[in-house]
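Hello Y.,

Per our agreement to keep a running log of every chain we model this quarter, I'm adding this entry. I've kept the format consistent with earlier entries: sequence first, then predicted structure.
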Amino acid sequence: MTNDSNNRRRLDEELLIDFLMGACSDEQADQVRRCLVDDDAFSRLHDDLSNALGALRLADAPDPPTDLVARTMDRISSQHKLDALLADEARAPRGGGRTFSLREALSVAAAIALLVTAFMPSLVQQARRRGQIQQCGAQLGQIGRAFNEYSLANDNVLPAGEQTNRRWMPADGEPVAGNSAGLFLLIRNKHADPALFICPAVKTNAPPLEVRPEMTDFPSGQYIHFSYQYSIGGRRISLDDKRLAGVRQFMAILADSNPVFAEGRFNRDQVGASSGNHGHRGQNVLYLDMHVLWQKMPTVGVAGDNIYLVGQNTDEYEGDEAPADETDSFLLPAYSKVSSK
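Predicted structure for the entry above:
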């Protein structure tokens, strides 16, 4: 690469790191969003940096045990004794009755221990979970790029369905608005692939989604495993809204499925819980400035707002509540068109 190319990449990296860490000005953020749409190399660099930062956040760093020094010294002492034992064994005459040497026995034991460790179900499951979390986060990042493309083509407004109905949870046979219709516009307008909306941690036997001209929403909850910011009843999110200018990096707009209203009802015991997509261990969250973070708790919106609930104090739901204000994240359930029973 030439010096000019190296300098350009370094500047792009610095800008993208600031963007992903929420340290950009509004003008810089707009510049990044335009480049993500127009420059494939810039978009690939964004994805690489986003995944790298996500991996760092996934890597837990527990405090070392208080007896670490003592255990380390004991291990060194034991190793010295083992070395001396092996040296004595090597000098000893090989009698006809010995089948294995001490070194051979230790080697076999070490190999067995290694195999047991490598195939322990808990470790395998943990690695699988981490991989699913990273893949899920990468998918949210790609949906964020689709949001940017859509907004640039639609007056800086994020997609929303056309329903005027404000009911999002079934009750007494009343019709329900599909909040996911807004996300479906990303598919209809070819900004996003349908597979991006299926969380890799959720088991589903759904066949690939075939998009037909008459479709205005996902056909069922099997095809949408993420919860989107309230966008029914004519409510839309504008990237030009001055009330959001200073909180874009904290304003959650998309995340793993809402656990509080799963299966079309209010589950009081899930208030304060993280998404069930990843076993209630946490959720990937896409923010309004289009960066993705793995968050272990749901209270990660503006000023500690619970992203799955309305406001801070609502503990009863009728199914027609709306966000308390423009900065209140209320990610509606990921199901689509659930009918009342």
